[in-house]
Amino acid sequence: MKTKPPASVPDVSLYFQVHQPNRLIPYDFFRIGEHAFYEDDLLNAEILSKVSEKCYLPANAMFEKLLKKHKGSFRMAMSISGTVIEQMKAHRPDVLESFQSLVATGHVELLAETYYHSLAYLHSKKEFERQVEMHLHLMEEVFHVRPRVFRNTELIYNNAIAAQAETMGFDGILAEGVGWALNGKSPNFLYTAPHVTQLKTILRNSGLSDDIGFRFSDKDWSEWPLTPEKFAAWIAESDGDVVNLFMDYESIGEHQWEDSGIFEFWEGLPEAVMEEDLRWVTPCEAVDLHRAAKEYDCHWPTSWADAERDLSAWTGNVMQQEAIGKIHRLESEVLAANDDDLTRVWAKLQTSDHFYWMSTKGGTDGGVHQYFSPYASSYDGYIYFMNALADMQIRLKRIRENDAVPRKAGLKSQASRKKAGP
Predict the structure, then answer these.
(1) Tens of pLDDT along 93-144?
(2) Peptide bond into 26 cis (omega under 30)
């Protein structure tokens, strides 16, 4: 850490990801063609309730109190996936109400994303745009806001995604500050992608974000225990225009347990930051306040996942690659079926978590994958997913056959009328 603060201090932007996936039942071979519901609804409800009690409800109450106390001096941002909102509506409407109350303070900016927390852009711009538009409509319906800043699933980003976000009308996009793309530059500035004219790229400060999200409760960490005052001083010593702290919301109370002191840390951080003469801003405010004076040329897809910060968390082995390829190859056939329920089921199977759970990585990253997985092994996750896809293909075949019967009957009727004459 620097010992001498720079002449000017940066702003601070805080963003949380809120997401829960739909986990699959142990969908074995004998269910194919016989059982058309793939999700483990009981497990989804159980995990949602557990995370709600440990994180969502107490964290929402804490932040609502802090936002009201500081009367706009403290601000934050969130992106909330369509899948977690669906689960809240079905199983915990009280939790959804607590998010609505938090947003109603007027000091929480909501970001846009893909409705199903998917990897759609990598395979289909059409499906990507459909899911982003669905999410925008959901934000208007549930929270009465329309986001101006976009955050792709797991901060997956490259030049092309930035250009697409600008085409869709967004003013800013979030991304991981990756070393090879920064090429020695600081993540604490706003950037612009090549061939983009207006949209600004907002980069995550991975070091400071992970100090809270991952290292906070590690007693072997040289900086443990982390206090609000120490952390605020680190930010004040940072260069640049804005330090972006991006992390999972579940890091509060779920990944970092309550007895680690994580709630006390967050309760003290807003004031500690302001005592360092630092200003809290939302991503949208950062876009409005700061110039994008430099180019961030990110030609390969990056993310905030695993040590590689690439797509290997979802595409690193043959199982993942086959599963992703197969679900997206069904797009034209699913849409042609014109069946709303089938389209919805197909889209939910695109959620990135399904492929994350198929990872076979070892080491620390492998341990994180296993921690989040509801299955005994990555192979189980692959088998259940592929069996569900096999059943979906049977359903598609039945729809085609049912559609063909009226057409054949119509052709026979026409032929009979022609044979009979006038």
Answers:
(1) 999 999 999 999 999 999 999 999 999 999 999 999 999 999 999 999 999 9
(2) no
Pairing of strands 149-150, 190-192: unpaired
Number of alpha helices (DSSP H) and beta strands (DSSP E) in the chain: 18, 12
Q: Which two tokens stand for residue 96?
A: 């959804």
Q: Is 127 in the same domain as 242?
A: yes
Cα angle 160, 163, 169 (rounded to 5 degrees) comes to 145
Per residue in 190-214, pLDDT tens? 999 999 999 999 999 999 999 999 9
Last residue of a domain, one of 250, 267, 295: 295
Q: Indicate whether 249 and 105 sit together in one domain.
A: yes
Radius of gyration from C-alpha coordinates of the chain = 24
- The domain that contains 40 carries what CATH number? 3.20.110.20
Amino acid sitting at position 295: E
Q: Are residues 118 and 71 in the same domain?
A: yes
Residue 303 in any domain: the answer is no
Written as six digits, the tokens of 89 are 């509506």
Give the whole-angstrom CA distance, residue 5 versus residue 286.
Answer: 21
Q: What is the DSSP string of 239-280?
A: -SSEEEEEEEGGGEETTEEGGGTHHHHHHHHHHHHHHTT--E
In a domain, 379, yes or no: yes
Structural domain harbouring 127: 11-295
Give this prediction's pTM.
0.92
**Alpha carbon distance 297, 150 (integer Å):** 18
- CA dist 63 and 260 (Å) reads 18
61 & 181 share domain: yes
Q: Is residue 417 domain-resident?
A: no
Residues with catalytic roles: 154
Quickly list DSSP for 326-351. Answer: HHHHTHHHHHHHT-HHHHHHHHHTTB
Last residue of a domain, one of 237, 264, 295: 295
Instruction: Using the Cα atoms of residue 188, residue 189, residue 195 and residue 197 in order, give the sign of their dihedral.
Output: positive
Total domains in the fold of the chain: 2
392's tokens = 């979906």
